[in-house]
Amino acid sequence: MNYKDLAQSIIENVGGEENIQGLTHCATRLRFNLKDDQKPAEATLKNTPGIMGVVNKGGQYQIIIGSDVGNVYKEIANQTNLETNQGTEKDDRGRVAKVIDTITGIFTPILPAITAAGMLKAVLSLLVVFNVLTAESQSYQILNFMADAAFYFLPILLAASSAQKFKTNMYLAMMVGGILLHPNFIAMVNAVKEAGGSIQLFGLPISPVTYSSSVIPIILSVWFMSYIEPIADKVSPKAIKFFSKPLLTIFIVGAVALVVLGPLGYIISEAISSGIQALESVSPWIVPLLIGAFSPLFVATGTHYGLVPIGINNRMTAGYDTVIYPGMLASNVSQGAAAIGVGIKSKDTTIKQLAFSAGLTGLFGITEPALYGVNLRFKTPLYAAMIGGGFGGLFMGIMRVRNFSGGSPGLLTLPSYIGDDTLSYLINACIGAAISIVITFIVTLFLYKDPVSEAEAETPVKKENQHFSGAEIKSPLKGELKSLKQVNDGMFSEEILGQGVAIEPAEGMVTAPIQGTVTAVFDTKHAIGLTSDEGIELLIHVGIDTVKLNGKGYDYQVEKGQKVAVGDPLIQFDLAGIKAQGYPVITPIVVTNSGEVGDILTANEGPIDFGQQIIKVIN
């Protein structure tokens, strides 16, 4: 993949750099904040090689790249100056979209650190369970504080990402996080808890609570700072602004954080945790069931990151999460199982390869390739994944499975269910994942069918995708079928004009590949445009650079507006004469409205004759 070219194409097709307010990325997606989300050329983006899909939900314009997203993000950053363009336009999005976007923007950047810490904790738990290490050994203690670092200093990590989201000074925000975590403050809190008394700042009471591993207090504090810093800037005399602005900001925000916002955030965190525990005591299966069943829809709309903070907060307050991560585990492995089921059931080689690859990544916790490449595309595996995920989530909810350290929910993070000196939660998590996989797999095998009739399966055309149904495009030429990538013209080889195939002709006759209407003719007679009765728009371009011949060697057999049937003569051309003048005669046949008609599936390269199927369009 050429990251530089892909980045340039994305920038152009989202409306240019001037349309971009902000950009972040997660494990598989570029997440744009656009000034005008109607401006992007969505059809072009969806059909750009390297882009798996496009989602415009939750206040963000999301482009699904896959595992290469980090490299594409870096190239976009290199080609733009986004930081100077952010925050100058009016934001007309709804409140819900703004909230989801804010949560996503704050938590997405810190997920690598949280994931690394969670996985290190899981590995450490395994080493202890299997007696490789003991809790008293120095190796255990060192690995343990390495893993705890991200959790303990979570307020500082969140301060940095919150500052970027709220557009305030990152280093001052991190200093506020340091204030909440300072050892002297923690010592004062511990002393008050042991001996009684109070903590006061100029007579203002400070609640004796600690904020390590907390989520909400620092976010509220940095949000407050985003309002105080401009005021401090405004009231500071220009001559001393360099030190008066940060002084005023930190004094006010630090004091308010300790006296008001920190305790308020702590109360909110505890309320969320208590609410989850109350729900758990009444019906512990409800939330994991719903998340297990409907997470694919959250992922498809990009709103699943709104659930992540709840799971993190649960672990930070109660020490474990019983609702978010267990439900997501059931959902993710179901997505992978559904894709693998398609791979086994399908008779198409291309779909098999995609389904197996996407299925494996889904089982390991990255579901976008399975979701967009297979399950949403064919619908029935999506339904199977929702059914299997629901049953798996239901089981884990009933068994009150606990997740202790997070990570991307999947088979690789099953060790994150080891905790409380028992393997019971891990065992039940494994059983729940197995339930999800087995049920999804069985339902997928039952529901999924390659959309093809027996008659189509017997078609003599040599191609990988002969099992698909949909509109068919026949060969307009006799010769050698080739990929568009072999055409020495970027407009065709890069599929800028559309998806399709090319043919190296053996005879000088072009016939109609579809039943439809002639919609475009040219004075140079080297090309012709057709529209099928189903609405598929085709361009047949005989030769490369042959427009320079000004029609010499070409003769139309039809006129614009004429109805044609498959096999009707369209263009007669002097094959030998065109070759003799040094022009390539390779002929692209492209669907110029590829982004509107559905999936474009092409035949294998090799010998082709008039009337054999070369393209199938799945609506």
Annotation keywords:
619 residues; alpha+beta; eight-stranded antiparallel beta sheet; four-stranded antiparallel beta sheet; 20 strands; 50% helix
Question: Summarize this, please?
Answer:
This protein is an alpha+beta fold.
Describe the 3D structure:
The chain has 619 residues and is α+β, with helices and mostly antiparallel strands. It has 22 helices and 20 strands. The chain has an 8-stranded antiparallel beta sheet with strand order 15-11-12-13-17-9-8-19, with no helix packed on it. Strands 1-2-4-3 form a 4-stranded antiparallel beta sheet. It has a 3-stranded antiparallel beta sheet with strand order 7-20-18. Helix 5 packs antiparallel against helix 6 (138-152) and helix 14 (324-345) packs antiparallel against helix 17. The radius of gyration is 30 Å and the shape is elongated. The model is unreliable at 84-90 and 452-469 (pLDDT under 50).
